[in-house]
Amino acid sequence: MTHKEAAESGRISVARNKRARFDYHLLDTFEAGIVLTGTEVKSLRAGKANISDAHGIVRDAELFLLNAHIPEYEQRGYATHEPTRSRKLLLHRKEIRRLIGSVEREGLTLVPLELYFRRGKAKVALALAKGKKVHDKREDTKRRDAEREMARVERARRR
Length: 159
What we know:
alpha+beta, Small Protein B, Chain: A
């Protein structure tokens, strides 16, 4: 999605977790709101965030995002925030129950895929994921390399 298309749809991406698709089998995705402070929102609007080490946890029937790094806002006054604090995620009660069941019973992981703004609200795209084994990652790499090679040969053949 180009920046222009994203702006027209009301979705402006701030951070992506590129390793998630490589490290995990993604089973189901959810969109959750995220509870932020004022300086965190300003820092996100400046395009500064890192969710590559982040993951979701269940605590007291609520979902939280851990290790998402949102740096301190540079033009702040006296108010500031801790960059890697745990942040509460907002979902419908039915979705939370379903996620709790999957995480606790099936041993799945909540992985953030993208942090973005939709219609002015900060959102995070979460995925229920199962970790890949090393041989699965090797197979994915081989498949991607083969597809790239076929595309390269196809382009060369067209010339």
